[in-house]
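ugh ok fine here u go
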Amino acid sequence: MATQTTPARTVPLRRADAFKRALEHVTEIKEKQQKKIGDIYGSLCLNFPVMLRQNGLRQTIAFIEDKASAKDERARAYQLLRSHIAANLGLNESKLVDLLRDASALEIVRYTRLLLAAWIYYKRFAVSILGAEATAEPDGQYRQQGAAR
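structure:
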């Protein structure tokens, strides 16, 4: 006898979940965190999809994990980002690196697609709720318009 499996969530339901989760996470940061942490987090939200596309999921998570290990406001923003990434993937945050290390290539592609789809909402809410600016560097430091990198 075949075992019953739960049906896959439809794309509209996944999008609705991502919208709701992003709104809750970004609103919570606005209400409960210091403004500087919110500014850094907003900048990270804008830059996360670029990091993900350029470096891949595993390398991006390793970078975030490294930055989250310090004890300052910037590290707190990276910790929040890591937490929100894990929530969107439905993975345990404390075992995120281990789970991704052991994931198959197909799972990594699936996780990457899920995050890119969800991050559309995080980016929009980072701008509208946190006032994030597109000129911010990934680490939250702002550069002058037109300045060389």
